[in-house]
Backbone:
């Protein structure tokens, strides 16, 4: 190797395994450095707030304590919020799942143009939630809403109240339908037409095919969708807040009012309720995973 | 056979009607002069729209919403695209970390996140609660799942290791290969995800209301604060807002074909 | 008397005919292949026989019974799909037992038949596996067993091998044929692969655009193509236009002429078989040569167009290099005029 060869070309020409390795590892360090702003920002605005919540849920009067959690156990009002959230979310998710399953199945039996149109429309409708949706529902289903009046005039409806549990179930179901359809439509792809034909050739009826093959195959997807809907409904805030001005007692309303309300501020109690809400969602997801593990998919 | 087909069309049109009804009534309400205790409105007018679009507070909120969304998406693009590239090319074994991270914004309800955000960023060293900055940073995190999925899918379809090897053998540096080969190939996925994320962020209310509120009013917060004015006026607002979101979703759908 | 009789069968989708005037008979225990390019109607014909599609005209008789309008469940016909169509939520055993359970057989009978089926396709030890734990070849064996245990009157196979690797395909091909002969099972096999058709079948029905253009044994179809389509679909026939044939071979013909590559010899390399009648020598230039194992394939340029020539690969002969001028002679006994 001649002395006159300059440094940089030497590096390039004599890429012995050792120096090459060094160069690659330096490149990897630089590459890792490029991701640093991303990870710091994500940590600062997603992970650290979560850690803050967990830590502060165990702080009461600036000391480590379980008092926040004990207070939840003592408060009938907070327990009512849990119960309302669970009932509302469960019912709305159940209805949305049933409607979504029927829709996803029926969409496979209509012509392509209608199907594509409905799917695009569904995508757009999935953005119609929260405050605008609450206002729209007031117009059609409020005390003087057009549909309320229509249904009352033909005697189908006596005392429907949009601002009660049943009203909230209706509006929650509504904004969960597009999500259910979005998640369930591809699930029916899993059922191949050949299976049904094979079953029929072996003497099965359509009903037998669905009972023995179709439903077992698709049920994990339906259950998974139900879990996502449930989590979505439990975490929903804007719709119920806009509709009832924060007067209906569900978890998210409680949490928000304890950090940004006018009267009663208690961020540490809000943190404890938040931790329980997240744990509840985690528990539901874990049950779903456990059920999936027992099914044939995992074997 | 014929009967079951009729049933399927019935279900599909039924769901369509359910989804359409609130929108349609709101649209009708926004065009009605007065719609009291009757099933149909008294007369039709464009007055509510004229009133809305000449309200300076509305226009300001509209502009501020767009500004925050664009800011969050610009920040997201700048940080997410290189990160995904680095993870896919240099550390493919760490993809599971990313898959776990992008679950967080879905799994943790916004109300819960805002509890922490509100306390951490209310005081020094980063007193940004009540300013647009906290929304831009927070929106960056909640847009991440949308952007990550779309970009990662495009990146996955590229067969990155072979593509980069080919570019290197042809004399390109890693940086050049990223800029000239990878970026043009993921552009479509990126743009679609940007349009979808825009619609999503534009519809965000929880963070905007709790973290900032009226101090830097976005369209959703403005809409909420207008709840005590005329229902016709808010309807015109809902429809204007929805049309805007619709255009963006529609463009994303078109680009995706 | 024939076991299966198909008369005047016709099928349209909307207004476009898929096939029409399909007539054939099959004897008990015969292995029939429906061969043709994709879109020729062979799969639809198979599905019509199975009862998965209705027909617009004609009749299907099995063992003297008219099954044309019988629902698929009651035809006693089994089918193996290209995609296997195994039920993913059931083990090998449950998949094979499915049809027997539908027939409400006793559990002893079901157990016995499932065991027989598993042994027949050599899947012992995989009884409790789910389809996604099996290889493609194993899955198709399960699908085959699932059909066989039904003891069907006819077994239909819809391109069952086309999703498999070459080697597995060859194995399974032989196994299917063995089982079929052992059970004396009347079988209709659909494929677009001519090699598959030639090696497996008792008879081949060659289909093109909705019609059976030729039927016969593998040998008949291979050596006596009925028309230019058959000649081009089977083997690597040299297909000459009438004027080319007149100029090259001195034939007095108005039709296209088909010449098999192995019926042409290179005078300087191989001796002329004196029992056959050969054409005048044709001069040609070697354009390319390709070694296909036991055969060497030359592409030759002649004054009247290109000819493909197959020679047996004997060690005494060396590969002729590109550009060499050679004399060709065509065995005129093997030349076929085709429509």
Residues:
């Amino acid at each position: 190797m001649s002395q006159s060869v300059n440094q940089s070309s030497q590096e390039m020409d004599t890429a012995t395994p050792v120096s090459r390795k060094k160069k690659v590892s330096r490149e990897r360090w630089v590459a890792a450095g490029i991701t640093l702003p991303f990870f710091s920002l994500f940590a600062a605005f997603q992970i650290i707030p979560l850690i803050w919540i967990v830590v502060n849920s165990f702080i009461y009067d600036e000391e480590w304590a379980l008092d926040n959690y004990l207070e939840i156990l003592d408060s009938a009002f907070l327990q009512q919020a849990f119960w309302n959230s669970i009932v509302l979310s469960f019912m709305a998710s159940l209805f949305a799942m049933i409607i979504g399953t029927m829709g996803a199945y029926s969409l496979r039996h209509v012509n392509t143009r209608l199907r594509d149109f409905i799917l695009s429309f569904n995508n757009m409708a999935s953005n119609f939630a929260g405050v605008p949706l609450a206002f729209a529902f007031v117009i059609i289903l409020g005390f003087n809403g057009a549909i309320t009046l229509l249904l009352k005039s033909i005697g189908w409806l006596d005392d429907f109240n949009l601002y009660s549990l049943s009203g909230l179930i209706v509006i929650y179901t509504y904004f969960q339908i597009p999500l259910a359809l979005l998640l369930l439509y591809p699930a029916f792809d899993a059922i191949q037409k050949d299976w049904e034909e094979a079953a029929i050739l072996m003497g099965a009826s359509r009903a037998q095919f669905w009972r023995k093959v179709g439903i077992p195959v698709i049920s994990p997807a339906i259950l998974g969708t139900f879990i996502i809907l449930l989590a979505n409904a439990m975490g929903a805030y804007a719709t119920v807040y806009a509709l009832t001005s924060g007067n209906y007692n569900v978890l998210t309303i409680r949490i928000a009012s304890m950090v940004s309300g006018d009267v009663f501020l208690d961020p540490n109690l809000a943190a404890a309720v938040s931790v329980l809400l997240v744990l509840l969602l985690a528990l539901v997801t874990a049950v779903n995973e456990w059920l999936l593990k027992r099914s044939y998919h995992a074997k | 056979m014929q009967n079951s087909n009729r049933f399927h069309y019935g279900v599909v049109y039924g769901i369509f009607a359910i989804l359409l009804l609130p929108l349609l009534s709101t649209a009708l309400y926004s065009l009605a002069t007065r719609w009291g205790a009757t099933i149909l409105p008294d007369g039709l007018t464009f007055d509510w729209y004229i009133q809305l679009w000449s309200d300076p507070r509305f226009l300001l909120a509209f502009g501020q919403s767009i500004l925050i969304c664009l800011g969050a998406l610009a920040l997201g693009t700048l940080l997410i695209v290189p990160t995904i590239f680095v993870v896919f090319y240099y550390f493919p074994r760490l993809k599971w970390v990313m898959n776990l991270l992008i679950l967080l914004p879905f799994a943790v309800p916004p109300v819960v996140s805002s509890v922490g955000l509100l306390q951490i960023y209310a005081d020094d060293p980063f007193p940004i609660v009540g300013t647009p900055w906290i929304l831009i940073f927070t929106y960056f995190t909640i847009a991440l799942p949308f952007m990550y999925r779309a970009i990662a899918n495009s990146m996955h379809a590229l067969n990155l290791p072979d593509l980069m090897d080919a570019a290197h053998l042809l004399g390109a540096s890693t940086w050049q290969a990223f800029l000239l080969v990878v970026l043009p190939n993921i552009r479509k996925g990126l743009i679609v995800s940007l349009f979808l994320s825009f619609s999503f962020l534009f519809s965000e209310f929880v963070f905007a209301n709790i973290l900032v509120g009226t101090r830097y009013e976005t369209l959703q917060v403005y809409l909420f604060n207008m709840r005590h004015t005329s229902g016709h006026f808010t309807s015109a607002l809902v429809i204007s807002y929805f049309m805007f979101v619709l255009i963006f979703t529609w463009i994303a759908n078109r680009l995706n074909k | 008397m024939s076991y299966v009789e198909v008369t005047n069968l016709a099928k349209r989708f909307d207004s476009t005919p898929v096939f029409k005037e399909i007539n054939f008979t099959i004897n008990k225990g015969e292995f029939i292949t429906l061969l043709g390019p994709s879109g020729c109607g062979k799969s639809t014909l198979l599905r019509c026989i199975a009862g998965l599609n209705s027909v617009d005209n004609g009749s299907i008789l099995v063992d003297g019974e008219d099954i044309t309008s019988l629902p698929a469940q009651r035809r006693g016909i089994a089918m193996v799909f290209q995609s296997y169509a195994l039920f993913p939520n059931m083990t090998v055993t449950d998949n094979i037992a499915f049809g027997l359970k539908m027939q409400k057989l006793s559990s002893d009978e079901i157990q016995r038949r499932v065991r027989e089926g598993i042994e027949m396709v050599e899947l012992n030890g995989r009884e409790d596996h789910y389809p996604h734990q099996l290889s493609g070849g194993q899955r198709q064996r399960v699908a085959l067993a699932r059909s066989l245990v039904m003891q069907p009157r006819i077994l239909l196979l819809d391109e069952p091998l086309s999703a498999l690797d070459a080697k597995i395909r060859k194995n399974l091909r032989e196994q299917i044929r063995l089982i079929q002969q052992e059970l004396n099972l009347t079988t209709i096999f659909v494929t677009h692969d001519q090699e598959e058709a030639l090696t497996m079948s008792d008879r081949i029905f060659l289909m093109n655009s909705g019609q059976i253009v030729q039927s016969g044994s593998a040998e008949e179809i291979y050596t006596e193509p009925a028309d230019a389509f058959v000649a081009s679909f089977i083997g690597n026939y040299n297909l000459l236009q009438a004027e080319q044939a007149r100029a090259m071979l001195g034939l007095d013909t108005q039709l296209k002429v088909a010449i098999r590559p192995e019926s042409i010899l290179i005078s300087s390399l191989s001796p002329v078989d004196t029992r056959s009648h050969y054409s005048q020598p044709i001069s040609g230039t070697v354009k390319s040569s390709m070694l296909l194992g036991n055969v060497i394939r030359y592409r030759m340029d002649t004054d009247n167009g290109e000819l493909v020539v197959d020679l047996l690969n004997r060690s005494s002969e060396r590969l002729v290099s590109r550009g060499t001028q050679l004399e060709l002679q065509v065995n005129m006994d093997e030349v076929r005029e085709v429509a």
Remarks:
- Chain A touches chain B through 85 residues (CB under 8 Å).
- The radius of gyration of chain A is 27 Å.
- The mean pLDDT of chain A is 85.
